[in-house]
Amino acid sequence: MKFRLPLEFDVKRLLNDLGKVRQDEWIPHYNPNDHQGNWSLAALLAPAGDPTNIYSCALPDICRPTPLLERCDYFHQVLDQLPIKKSSVRLMKLDAGAVIREHCDSLNDDEIRLHIPITTNPQVEFYLADERIEMPAGSCWYLDFRHPHHVKNCGSSSRTHIVIDAYRNDWFGQLNATN
Fold first, then answer.
1. What structural domains and CATH numbers belong to the chain?
2. How confident is the model at residue 60 (pLDDT cuts 50, 70, 90)?
3. Distance between CA atoms of residues 113 and 145, nearest Å
4. 27 φ, ψ to 5°?
5. What count of Cα atoms within 13 Å lies in the side-chain half-sphere of residue 93?
6. Taking burial as the number of CB atoms within 10 A of a residue's CB, which of 19, 58, 96, 157 is the most buried?
7. What SS3 state is found at 18?
């Protein structure tokens, strides 16, 4: 249901690229029923490279880098280290005091979702199927979001992750088999 991938990314370089995101590029999450407080997204890979399209896309062949991703060299390098077909890549930021209510994501058996934390704090309470998962900055995680999950940011700083929607392949199957 979850495992940490054997990848580590340079937190300083992740933060440097995160600093290139303009305030106007953050878009409020599209489902206000799923959260309380500020939960926002910025598209890195989206259909036709449209920076306003923050939705997960089922058609990876039409996804292109957004202008934001084009400005972020290290984010490009991070994504290149993941040899999977990506259907969307977004930054997701949960501000201090915000809550993502319990829900399940609609992913089919071929789809996976990876998280790479950039900013976090010890007071982020992330639960998947009632198990608390602590994800340090720079790590990479697979979590099966078809199971109930919720997040509460009780800290005083935002939590920001790169969230990658992709399709299972042999590389991912080998990682999964060893975990």
1. 2-177 (2.60.120.330)
2. low
3. 7
4. -115, 130
5. 18
6. 96
7. helix
